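Open question from group meeting: does this chain pack into something compact, or does most of it stay loose? Before anyone orders reagents, we agreed to write out a predicted structure and look at it together. Recording both the input and the output here so the notebook holds the full record.
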Amino acid sequence: MKPLKNIAFIAVLLIGILSFSKSEKPTTTLNIDNINALEILSKQDLTCRPNSDFLFYVESSLVKKSRGFNTVNARVYMIDRSTGQYNLLASENVAVPFHKEMIALDYETTTRDCELTALENGDKIVGNANSGNYCFSELMKNETVYNSYINSTNKLLNLDRSL
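Structure tokens returned:
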């Protein structure tokens, strides 16, 4: 009976050690820079389930507090979920007024070909820090990116704006 207990103990020990050994992740040769983000976003709008390969999110930081509005730098990122690689798609300064139609902004025009617009909630793209391969206003037309922008600015400015 004693050798049977030893064999069972060794078997359980080996199974435990081998079950926690590292397995190799498959390496992908996917280059996130060569992917058309607008095409992926348009496919997400047409289907009922989001794309599980890529994640789009917005980070925001406060640039300047002014009378009647705050200027926020919003950056849109795309993440490849399988590899963890991320890429900056667009970065833009946005004026977030305290009230929906509180102010008329007089900013310099943008230097890129992107159109200077106002968002659905009354925020105005002021266009002084645009970088990335895509126009910020084009990305904001997508519901996924727009909702992420609203959540990010709500957390940053301690606001309660609805989606």
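Observations to bring back to the group:
Residues 54 and 80 are 5 Å apart (CA to CA).
The longest strand covers residues 54-66.
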